[in-house]
Design goal:
With 192 residues, the chain is mainly α. It is 65% helix and 0% strand. It has one domain.
Length: 192
Amino acid sequence: MNFNLPDYTFEETERIFADYGWYIPPFIGIGIVFQLVDLFESNNVNEAENLLVKYFKINLKEIESDLIKSLPERKDILREAFLSHRKKLFYCSTILFLSQADGICDSIIFRGREIGKIKNKDKNHPIINILAEKNSLTDHYNKETKNSNYFSDLNRHGVVHGISNDYGNELNSLKALSLVCCVSDFGRYNSQ
């Protein structure tokens, strides 16, 4: 497949993924990232999401192992989330992944000494900017519109607070996992 190399910053690229409820997974090849951006930007969302689903399916065992290694205090919950995903219990896996992403954000990114480190390094770190913006995952959930003004139907607030009841599918489970990977990867990078 031919694709154009996008002329975007990391933050702009991450924002494109976030617009569709995804976050750039770790260890994904830069060529695939460029291909995905090109697909999203040319409105080939199904093709882009199929590529991301394939990436996660192929790398699921490695992603699980990496997350458990880097987050040993969360290993039991992460194992259960991955087990739920493998057993196609997507309501369970999605909410478990989202809750762990929240916990990782709270303990690594947004609290205590770490926020001081971030602010000292870069006052506008791209991941913090992306997570702070309203998008399909982070905006307050509206029962009437089901957040239809976004490209993704996965909404953290709607899921965690029991407002949304139609999120239990493989795609949303993997989107939630992509958020866990993103914030975990950021936490590792920031603690070095």
